[in-house]
Amino acid sequence: MCKRIEGIVGSSSTCQEHRPSNAKEPMISHRIPDRPWQVVATDMFTWNGENYLVTVDYYSRFFELDNLHSTTSAAMIHKLKAAFARHGIAETVVSDNGPQYASKEFEAFAKSWEFTHITSSPHYPQSNGLAERTVQTAKALMEKAKADERDPYLSLLEYRNTPVDNFKAPAQLLMSCRLRSILPSTNKQLQPEIISYKAGHAKWLQRQQHQNKYYDRSTRLLPPLHNGESIRLQERGYWKPAVVIQPADTERSYLLRAQNGQVYRRNRRHLRSTNEKHELLTVKPVGVRRNRQGYFSFLAIEPEVPVSQCLEGFLNHGQRYTHLQLF
What we know:
Blueprint: H1 2-11, H2 13-17, E1 39-47, E2 50-57, E3 63-68, H3 73-87, E4 92-95, H4 104-112, E5 116-119, H5 129-147, H6 152-160, H7 170-175, H8 197-215, E6 230-235, E7 238-247, E8 253-258, E9 262-267, E10 271-273, E11 282-290, E12 296-306, H9 307-315, E13 323-326
Parallel strand pairs: 1-4, 4-5, 12-13
Antiparallel strand pairs: 1-2, 2-3, 6-7, 6-10, 7-8, 8-9, 9-13, 11-12
């Protein structure tokens, strides 16, 4: 009887569409950088009617906070260039899939300044968790400064001088010294002090292990998906039919084709295996284009070549994308 019920539910499109969300998977922590400002995360946010950009160092937790007078790629790139001129060019920049980061301008910026740009899975902000947490920290600093009618830059300065996890302050880890502020300090306290990388690495590794221990208590590892497998994609609370094309270039992410013909990149948590069979759309590719929002599109005129083959040549060129749309 139970198997019969499972079979009925599995073959019912309505039941499949309204199933609960997948369980969380075990945490995959970012690799601890070898030195300060080697890997940075960046994100944009709005506070009190104004737009801001945060750029945070994965090693020291030191972050830059910039007010943006425009939300264009050019304005954001200008602020990142200023940060890189102060601290050096990061080897890796991690961001979400916002149109500013998916633009041709940012792609050209990454190429000319010689850094690797990695984007998080769409609709999965925790893969860019450090930037998300830093945004909350920046908002809290500005909220408190506004409530007390104080200068927010002094609040930011004191944050940079405050030890992280009872270890060292972000300024000490990045610049090997404390920063002079309006709080009393001695000349000795402001003298440069080299922080051992081994001590820093051990501290961050211990913190990661502690976080993983508590996060993983309520998680479950989901089985991998296979090319051509019929699945369900979670969009706005509903599970929509889709077909797996191939694994994406980020961990636990897949390229898949939805019923509307669009090709998405999604995290495994938003994908569910199903016994249904969804036909894979085939197209004849005649070119690739990119619109202002940073979306890549195949221009197709008739069914002929499987989508996976269309993607193959495109992906081999190392292009970055938010999603691909078939016409």
